[in-house]
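2024-03-11 09:14:02 DEBUG pipeline.ingest accepted 1 chain
2024-03-11 09:14:02 DEBUG pipeline.ingest length=265
2024-03-11 09:14:03 DEBUG pipeline.predict start
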Amino acid sequence: MDWFQVTLLALIQGLTEFLPVSSSGHLILPAQIFGWADQGLAFDVAVHVGTLLAVMLYFNKDIRQMTLAWFASLANRQQSQESLMAWSVIIATLPACFAGLVFNDFIELNLRTTWVIGLSTLLFGLLLWWADIKGRRNRDESQIKMRDAVWIGLAQALALIPGTSRSGITITAALMLGLTRQAAARFSFLLSIPLIMAAGLFKGLELYQTGSETQISHTLAGSLIAFIAALACIHLFLRLLDRFGLLPFVIYRLLLGVLLLVFFV
């Protein structure tokens, strides 16, 4: 890879990991436009590490409180708001992990096409718009119940379909369940931590097994760029969410979906 490719792909990963847009839809465009080959496992691992560090740094206080409360709940069998949130994240993570184990090979072979990505980008963008309009938005994250976590987790499993957007579908589900925009986004971001960690570990193991060559300067730069982009993205998204709502992202998804279907199918 050259430095333009490193910078662009790391920025795309850092931004689209947390915005309710399709990361796969964005990653397919540079390859189509510039004719780029796959960036390689080492770079994938690096940018995943960058986004993981960003979300863990931003929510470090929440993570620390949830972790301590979760272990305390195991020890004394008493639940607190923080331990319930930790259990909600765990429960909501399980469906996607199970679906990934069962359907990953089928998805890799059959669904990673421009047609599927473009159509998913459109359809799930419209669903996000509908949820933002119809959602009651009268509950915060402290009021998330176990059944809410199950529904959001099932929705997150749909993000295995390329073009869906993990953050987009989990925010959509949370809004449908009556959470505020802020609560939906914050829970979605917390929910990303175990999945990004699992994806990074999986790719890291694959990298170790294949013994792929690594260009250290590119991987370090990619990780740093993805970290900065993701950190800025989380901060700005949460600050501007209530002011602008989700309609700008819906419009963007519709334009992206049409672009993919009209010009690259």
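2024-03-11 09:14:41 DEBUG pipeline.report The chain has a mean pLDDT of 91.
2024-03-11 09:14:41 DEBUG pipeline.predict end
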